[in-house]
Amino acid sequence: MRDRLFRQPGRGALAxxxxxxxxxxxxxxxxxxxxxVTVRRRAAAGYFGTFTQIVVxxxxxxAGALRNWENCWNDVKALLEDLETKFSSEIPGxxxxxxxxxxxxxxxxxxxxxxxxxxxxxxxNELTGGAFNPAVYLxxxxxxxxxxxxxxxxxxxxMPYDRPGGPSSALPDERYISAFTRLADFSRCVxxxxxxxxxxxxTGPDEFVDGQKYSLKIDFGAVGKGYAAEKVAALLRAYGYxxxxxxxxxxxxxxxxxxxxxxxxxxxxxxxxxxxxxNIRSPFDRDEKYLTAYGKDEGISTSGSYDRFYTINGRxxxxxxxxxxxxxxxxxIISATVIGGDAARNDALTTALCAMPAGExxxxxxxYLGDRRVILILAGGGFISNTTMYHRNP
Length: 394
Hints:
Layout: E1 19-21, E2 37-45, E3 51-59, H1 65-87, H2 95-100, E4 107-110, H3 112-127, H4 137-142, H5 174-183, E5 189-192, E6 198-202, E7 207-209, E8 212-214, H6 221-238, E9 243-248, E10 252-255, E11 276-281, E12 289-295, E13 299-304, E14 309-312, E15 315-318, E16 333-339, H7 343-355, H8 358-368, E17 373-378, E18 383-385, E19 390-392
Antiparallel strand pairs: 1-11, 2-3, 3-9, 4-6, 5-6, 7-8, 9-10, 10-13, 11-12, 12-19, 13-16, 14-15, 16-17, 17-18
Helix pairs in contact: 1-6, 3-7, 6-7
């Protein structure tokens, strides 16, 4: 059952808990709500390898209101199941699973939603100069950060390039780094067709190491959760819910409006009484918050390199891979948060920003992200931001 705390591992990596969302506070702190307006929360684990939470504020006193809520939740779960199957690299029968199994020169039919995410990924790949790169899947696996490494060693599939002592025991063989870096070329993925008849094809060449053939593989994990959050939010609105939010993995959010009755009083109303407060966790102390940002009716995403990493010979290697070098990114930016617009693009942007040197990230922020609020936390302490719409925690 998806509503239980955990599901069988292996269908997606557990997302790092980079956000702590203020959704567990009592409704009284959201103003003085009218007596018939109450809060409802539902959560499920497993979709996209993490947990999903939805929160809505509405009048549930009328006839059929609770049935409407249950129907909505069932449709949310069905939607997440469908999107995960289409997008996941770990589900063989899904769109991306089938594509990844192909040799160069072949193609497979994909759903309209997968085509939409592919186009969005291409847009973000171009905007970030390749820093957002869904084609680094083989490199991510080579460095030990794909979902198979969450499985117990006896049941974990073994690849020819695995290090005997595990990922953190030694650096990967240079031959594999070179071959997989050549394969990390998103331009080799070609979308053709039209609505209802899209085909995703893979161009070549394939690579050979010790006689074993390897073909390009892609992963939409860095954009799929944000896309799903947007679709779930649209479903909530279709069911008549105006106030609430969607949280997938504490890293991808879609905020709806926030319910505050006219005349309601809140302690944190300096940026507007109807804004949701969102805590960004400190990369330096997982039990502390770094700052609180604010927003409504928009997407919020965060990425960070400080939860999933290992150290070899004093150097830190994280799960955010630079497709140009074949190595994990340098880690100058250890946390990136983007607020505004849609959560899918924000997912891609935060991943890309963490893969960039701080100077390049600042340039992208200033030239292209003026319509979004960006907060970059640096490994050496301090942060870069294009907004003052936050409260810094001491």
